[in-house]
Amino acid sequence: MTGLILGFLLGFIMQRGRFCMAGGLRDVYLFKDYRMVIAILIAISIQSAGLLIFVPQGLAALPTGPFFWLATVVGGVLFGAGMSFAGSCSTGAYYRAAEGLAGSLLAVVGFIISSWFIRHTAVKPLIKPLKDYRTETGAITDTLHIAPWLAALALCLLTLYLAWRHLNKPALPVAKLKARRTGMAHLLFEARWHPFVSAALIGVVALLAWVSSLASGRPGGLGISGPSAQLFSLIFEGKSGFFGWAGYLLMGIVLGALLAAAGSRELKFRYPGHLTAVKSLAGGLLMGVGSGLAGGCMLGNTLVNTAWFSWQGWVFIPAIFVGSWFISYFTLIRPMNLNTVNNG
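-> structure tokens emitted (344 positions)
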């Protein structure tokens, strides 16, 4: 049940902190805003530092196996394209669906279906050619013969510097609404959460997930693509594999986000229109296929596998960036540029 508790905390924090990793990457090429990138690095750094202590003590175990580099690149590009269509990553779609966003709910449905599909026995021969391109060492530190503690130290120092530099920039004025609540209720359900605070809390939850997951017999950290596929199998095939640590984690994310949305008065059904609904469903389908090929979603690869310096996690990031930019170029960037030229 620890998976349920950690999932609840994760869903609550992500919803209240508006922690959208997809939006953070999109802000880089649209607005040259690196705030969410730094926030992601904060969550990764906390895990990296903690794993240096937990792994030698036997409290956490790192995944092993080869790095399927071509499958990761192709999967990352597809996942990034899906993010642009859906307007969020898969984890973001789950917590936004809990708020009542119909588009996000459709993205979740698409993600669940394609996560199951890409893992189906009949599909494996089709993706096998992508899996043939691999390296036997899965960690960057092993390939480059770098001590893990040195890599973790460099990452933490870089993150601290970037965070310090960002916090020392002149802050833009932000309009504040009059507080309607006081005390803990105000802090939990009304106050604006700084992305760095949310990231630090998520980093702690993610680090504890390594310990909790291993205690249940599952080495690794946070991840939702596998249990999403198992959820499909539970509903349509009657298989009970969903009811493990990762499945309870997924349930907790939805429940935590639901409470956060209800407490902050953001729980309301909203339909985005037919075109956006179709794009959201397509985005979810692409993200499910992409995460299946790449061995993890935005949460599992970008936020977790990067913490132990896996090639899979760090290669996934530029791949999703490319996929996201490509779709955004034709749906956002190019139309904005043409509008500027026409109005000029």
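DSSP finds 16 helices and no strands in the chain.
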